[in-house]
Amino acid sequence: MNRPWLLWIPLAVVALIGGLAIYGLAVPKDEQVHSAMIGQKLPAFSLPAAAAGVEGLASGDMVDGKPRLLNIFASWCLPCKAEAPYLEALKKAGVEIDAIAIRDRPEDVAAFLSEFGNPFRRIGSDSEMAVQLKLGSSGVPETYVIGGDGTILYQHIGDIRAEHVPMLIEKVNAAK
Amino acid sequence: MRMLALISLMLATPVFAQGSGPTPALANRQLPDPAQEAAATKLMHSLRCIQCQGQSIADSDAHMAGTMRAEVRQQIAAGQKPEAIRRWMIARYGEWVSFEPDMKGAGLLLWLTPLLVLIAGIWLARGLFRRGA
Fold first, then answer.
1. Which run of H or E residues covers position B8?
2. How far apart, in whole angstroms, are the C-alpha atoms of residue A90 and residue A165?
């Protein structure tokens, strides 16, 4: 054997694979699918009102120079119920919130609003999830921070909990 | 409230993530033109469902997959090229949404690894044969 260092190659390969396995176990897996639309303008859309007595939502409605939140929710979604008080808290803090109801019926949305409150300025109905797809949104609930010029600045995946409220207020204020 | 949040968390599985709205017509209806439908189906098998993650949108019954199938069929019917539709999806959900990674960055490594392993194998085998001779 004139090249004894060759003997070490299999060990190095096994060590590399073992190292990868340990790394894979140690690093928590991020199973969320993040939108690739961050930093881009809102896609053009125009949605009808999601319930009687509320106004529908078009992308142009969110381009008025004022940053806001865009909440993606559904009456059939349980975490959406859990986040309702925190959306209310955000509204009380002066944050304007628009919403899109996903795969929903007007009567279900109305029942949801009367039970959990309505912190929304406008609620569009995306019954076929087409706008959700355009936004790169992967589920409900999700909350986007939208700049005053209609730029998507941030995507919060999952329900808003108490600890997320100050962070979202901060992000909206930073966009002013 | 904390209890409600906890219960919601326990129930927050995709099983419940369904909803009551209509399914887009093109989610489960083929395009009239067989060539277009074939192109759409081929693309659908290589796009990953956002909701169920492990399945292609052609194989998944999730609503999100239905919406994505409808989007693919609509764009194919409008004359869009399959690769352009793939890029449309990637522009919204990132490289992750495609089962056929691009040949760049980590994707390039993925494509080239089998080739590199083959070259290494030939090189090793060559050494062995020479020694045997």
1. helix B2-11
2. 7
